[in-house]
Amino acid sequence: MLAPLIGRATGAEPAVTIPVSVVALVFDVRAVRRFWLAEHRWRWPITGLYGVVMIMIFGLLIDDVVRPL
Question: Rounded CA gap, 50 and 21, in Å?
């Protein structure tokens, strides 16, 4: 969970952070889907946790897209 903060602190280039963000979002969606397909008893709390993480990653993705080079 500290990776977004580390990426921002190191000044990583958008050419690196944009693909990483997209891959992270894809894997987050896949993980939530897997929890729901398994009808896991923790699916609601895990979905909420993944939702918060995805919002943070999506925010950083938007910041990378609109940030001037």
Answer: 14
Within a 10 A sphere around the Cβ of 36, how many other Cβ atoms?
13
Record the pTM: 0.75
Instruction: Give the number of domains in the chain.
Output: 1
Q: For residue 46, is it within any domain?
A: yes
Q: Is residue 8 part of a domain?
A: no
Q: Would you state the structure tokens that stand for residue 66, as one six-digit string? A: 């609109």
Is there a domain that residue 2 lies in? no
Q: What is the pLDDT of residues 39-54, one digit of tens each?
A: 999 999 999 999 999 9
